[in-house]
Amino acid sequence: MAMPAFAQDSAAASAEEFDDSVIVVTARRREENLIDVPVAVSAFSGAALEARGAVDLTDIGNITPNTTLETSRGTNSTLSAFIRGIGQQDPVSGFEQGVGIYLDDVYLNRPQAAVLDIYDVERIEVLRGPQGTLYGRNTIGGAVKYVTRELPDEFSLRLRGTFGTHDQAEGVVTVSAPVGDLLRIGGSIARLSRGGFGDNLTTGLENYNKDVWAGRGTVEFGGNGEPVFIRLSGDYSRDRSAPRGGHRLMPGLLSGAPVLDDVFDSRGGLVTPEQDVEAYGLALNVTVDLTESLTLRSISAWRKDSSYSPIDFDALPSADLDVPGAYFNEQISQEVQLQIDAGPLSGLVGFYYLDATADTLFDVRLFTTVAGLTAFTNAAVDTETYAVFGDFTYDLTDQLSLSVGGRYTWDNRQANILRQNYLGGGSPFFGGAGIALGAPSTNFTGDRDFNKFTPRVSISYQPNSDTNIYASFSQGFKGGGFDPRGVGANAPDLNANGIRENDEVAAFLSFRPESVDSYEVGYKGNLMNGGLYVALAGFYADYTDVQIPGSVACTVGGLPSFCGVVSNAGQATFWGVEAEFNARLGEGLMADGDRLNFLGTLGYINADYKEYITNIGGVPTDVADFREVQNTPEWTASGTIAYVTPMGDGRLNLGTTLSYRSRTYQFEVPNPYIDQSGYALLDASIVYTAPGDSWSIGLYGKNLTDKEYKTSGYTFIGANPTTGAPILGGNGLPTSALGREGTLTAFYGNPRQVFVTGTIRF
């Protein structure tokens, strides 16, 4: 709860910097004060994140309007991100992300290993609305930019240690040093660990624990007025946390296993493969000042990650619905920009290239239904994309500016999908003893191209340096693809000989691009002589051809199975408002050096499907009246009271934050068991900083009321195909749609945590 400077939304500065600090953001790929940017963007400095005790990227979602950032169901490090109703929950290959995650300007193509831990960070920016005329990859919902610190010019050593409840023990060492006048080297090593919030009562493993090693290394050349700046950076993380087991919300229909008392306990018996997530990458950023008004930038990157996850859907010892999974992702990208800053004209033109491979492999084991029955899927869905883009701002007068941008994207998606039934055990890939049963139900290669031009235009009026009024229109686009879980044998079309051809299978498994037309008006202002900062935005979005992935129970070759169902079933409209403000309280009533601030955020969104076509009994049916937009609460809000007072020659920072989210639907089909009603979270901190910032120590509390709240889940229970209402059996419990126990499993946000963090700086 560090004290924010008034020239930004949620960005924060230390007490000494409170009055005149200006945190610079790069939302438009050039350095600007946040108030000058005609975009809805929230920026959080490293100082603010440290003061809040922020642990990872998901903490940002609680204090950003109309934004959801959560750890995906059944994982420890895969990210589910939604902004203004647009996102992507499904982490399997074949589905592009609706919200772009950037690490030092490098787009992360897949959500695995994207729950980035917060250490050695300069700032995090959250941009709401379509992005594409300024950023390498087109993103339809928004972007989250994670920016690490550049190296200082002098030797620096920073030690941070944390100890807390649930056996939390963390350490971060950051060191850098100059080598001559132009060369600097540095790096960080982080050990992040915590005991479980509960236990797996079958395997004996801790549940919801954390076991992570991570590191970053950087070499910088130039800068400091030199015409060339080169930054070579690398990062590595290894997550060996135990599998995250879900909590059953209903007794076992076959075993009668009761519901556990502790929501963080689980009974899932699947232990293979061993949970292991490894991610690493290299990036080369080069900036060359060609002239006083022209700058050339190059961003080259390579990344790779692998994830092994045993996901026990039914959360019981038996293999009623067990899904061992593995994900292998690799990408190379190249971006080139030419930036211009020539008097009234500023902007850039750019080129972007991405070549990414995404392989997903998983079993679906239904041993209690048919002994040893397994459906194995091996799906490789690769992406190659090119784009040219540009965005220019022209100052029509000293107060009025016009920005025009556009992007043309060429996306190519190639898929190789194999689905094979096994009998007698799991698939050989996951160490099972199963024997192939019949011919593959899916075995095809697909290839699709998706091209699109997306424009953006905005006008900004600044009557003075403390006020910005703007209006904008932008179009977002997300390419189509192939559902890796679909079953080609279930494709409805046959040729004259009664044979399904590859084109029919490909058409059955593919889905079209989706697009959004987004309109926004906004106001940003410093009022009351700097005593109040306000940022307001109103938006309307027309969302068409919405891609709706899902998983359902099905029959393949006369055997029960698990199938993907993806369609462009939806048309939706989103409209809402967002507010962020920072008020200085008690001006003139407190002692010299004391600061009291109230920071607030408020988001409202009306997210409504206008059309939602699904197949019911072979008849296309519009069920929009019975569907909801997932992971998009109608109301989001937060309020922070931050107080700083001198203590000796140092300072004491006291803060508390209350955040609120209204009812959240986990999927498009409402489910009274796993949907989360509205809830509030209370955090607080006390931080003492020594003179000269030489050391600090802080006491932090997260979720102090110990609120239990669901963040995601799995459901395979019988439901009315139109309304989605659960079908109950004679015992009053939901019936099972897949497996014999019934799958109704939830995952929860972190319980109360209290920890102490100490930092020493040399």
From TrEMBL:
It is a multi-pass membrane protein. Keywords: Cell outer membrane, Ion transport, Iron, Iron transport, Membrane, Receptor, Signal, TonB box, Transmembrane, Transmembrane beta strand, Transport. A motif (TonB C-terminal box) lies at residues 745-762. SUPFAM superfamilies: Porins. Residues 34-143 form the TonB-dependent receptor plug domain. Residues 231-704 form the TonB-dependent receptor-like beta-barrel domain. GO terms for biological process: iron ion transport. InterPro entries: Beta-barrel_TonB (IPR000531), Beta-barrel_TonB_sf (IPR036942), Plug_dom (IPR012910), TonB-dep_rcpt-like (IPR039426), TonB_rcpt_CS (IPR010917). GO terms for cellular component: cell outer membrane. Pfam families: Plug, TonB_dep_Rec_b-barrel. It is found in: Cell outer membrane. Belongs to the TonB-dependent receptor family. This is TonB-dependent receptor.
